[in-house]
Structures are given as C-alpha cells and as structure tokens.
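Whiteboard transcription, Tuesday session. T.W. wrote the structure tokens on the left side:
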C-alpha cells in the first residue's frame, strides 16, 4: 500500500494472521472500523440504554468529537471494494490493496469453513466426534493440527488416486472394445 515505509523492520517475523486474518491489514480498518465508527460524535464509555443514551448525569467525554469527520480514518476500502480515502500521494501506483489481492489474502473466519458443519452437522464426522468423546480423547492444539494436516493430505491423495483409477479403467475399456475389435478385423 505504502511504497516507502521506514518502520517495517523488527527481529520477530510477523505472524501469518497479522495480514491474512486482520481487517486492519486488509484495509477495512482497525476492528473493521467499528470502534471509532463515527468520530463526529463524542466518545463516551459509560452505562447506556439500548438506544445509546447515557444513563448517569455525570460522565466524562473520553474523546471529543471532530466536526464533519464521519468515517474511521483507519478504513481505506469498504467491503464492496469502494475506496474511502486517498492513499499514497507521492508515488504512482501506490493504492489500497486491489479487490483481487484482498480476495487472495483474506482468510478471516477460516475456522468457520469447517466448523459450520463440524462436529455435528455431518453424519460421518459426528460419529467420529462421538467416538472421540466416549474414548475421552481431548482435541488440543497438537491433535487439531494433526487432524487437519492428515485429513487434507488424505483428501488430496484420494482425489488423485480416483482420477488415476478412472484413467486406468478408461484405457482398459478402450483397449478391450476398440483396439481388440480392429485387430480381429
Ligand atoms: C505482510 C503481510 C503478510 C504476511 C505476514 C503473510 N502473508 Fe501470505 N500473502 C500476503 C499477500 C499480500 C498475498 C497475496 C499476494 C498475491 O498473490 O497478490 C499473500 C499470499 C499468500 C499465499 C498464496 C495465496 C495464493 O492465492 O497464491 C499463501 C499460501 C500465503 N500467503 C501464506 C502465508 C503464510 C503461511 C504466512 C505466515 C507464515 C503468510 N502468508 C504471511 C501477505 C502476507
Ligand atoms: C479443515 C477443517 C478445520 C478447520 C479449518 C478448523 N477446524 Fe477445528 N476441528 C476440525 C475437526 C475435524 C475437528 C475434530 C472433530 C471435532 O471434535 O469437532 C476439530 C475440532 C476442534 C475443536 C475441539 C472440539 C471438541 O469437540 O473438542 C476446537 C476447539 C476447534 N476445532 C477449533 C477450531 C478453531 C478455533 C479453528 C480456526 C482457528 C478451527 N478449529 C479450524 C476441523 C477444522
């Protein structure tokens, strides 16, 4: 996004999640721009009604409002890909991450790609989960890592072997019914 940024070096490598699962890194703002959502209003943290009216008589304004500033300045693009502010005045091609690149990076809520279904919305997994439960098998971090990598490799191999199997059957049938007949003639 910013071609010249002198403060990006540190000894510790960044975590994958600090980009791939971070709304701020994607350009959607700190906390998706919710926390500082509307700076044109005073920020007050105190007891509130459901409508947002402050209940106590005495309260302190934590951050005074800034007139006419209606958006969170940590947001560069919205979720529909609309650019919200100018980024990079000095260099050609400096810009918020493009829609295509954000699509490649965005791995937020990746847990739900499995856990919408797992553990109880699919018969086979549900059975395995029950067996694990009765066996007293606790799925800690290491077990989870192991299940995930083993399963993904398994799926890849099953698919490759299935394709190979189909190919072999096809070649066999071709040989059996087409080539043999020609030889008989
Ligand atoms: C500084 C931000 C940043 C960090 C940290 C980061 N990535 Fe990425 N990653 C990106 C960006 C940006 C792309 C998309 C590049 C492109 O194809 O345009 C990407 C792409 C990828 C891709 C390829 C996706 C594809 O479709 O080709 C993989 C895989 C990946 N990252 C894994 C990781 C892993 C694993 C880690 C942690 C060890 C990590 N990344 C850390 C920013 C980051
Ligand atoms: C590729 C699929 C997949 C992904 C992605 C995934 N999980 Fe899982 N997870 C599983 C499977 C399979 C199990 C074992 C079945 C079960 O007991 O739920 C499991 C089990 C768990 C359990 C233990 C449940 C129990 O019954 O003890 C927790 C907690 C969990 N996952 C959290 C997460 C979190 C948090 C993420 C994201 C950071 C995540 N998972 C991502 C597949 C996945």
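and on the right, the sequence the group agreed on:
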């Amino acid at each position: 996004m910013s071609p010249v940024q002198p403060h990006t070096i540190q000894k510790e490598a960044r975590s994958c999640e600090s980009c791939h699962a971070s709304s701020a890194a994607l350009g959607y703002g700190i906390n998706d721009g919710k926390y500082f959502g509307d700076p044109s209003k005073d920020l007050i943290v105190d007891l509130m009604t459901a409508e947002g009216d402050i209940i106590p008589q005495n309260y302190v304004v934590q951050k005074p409002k800034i007139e006419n500033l209606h958006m969170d300045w940590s947001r560069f693009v919205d979720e529909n890909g609309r650019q919200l502010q100018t980024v990079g005045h000095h260099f050609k091609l400096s810009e918020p991450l493009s829609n295509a690149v954000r699509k490649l990076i965005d791995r937020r809520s990746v847990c739900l790609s499995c856990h919408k279904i797992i553990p109880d919305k699919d018969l086979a997994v549900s059975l395995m989960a029950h067996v694990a439960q009765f066996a007293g098998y606790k799925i800690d971090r290491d077990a989870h890592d192991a299940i995930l990598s083993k399963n993904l490799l398994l799926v890849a191999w099953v698919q490759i072997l299935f394709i190979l199997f189909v190919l072999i059957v096809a070649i066999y049938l071709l040989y059996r019914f087409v080539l043999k007949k020609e030889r008989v003639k």
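Someone added at the bottom: The chain has six helices and no strands.
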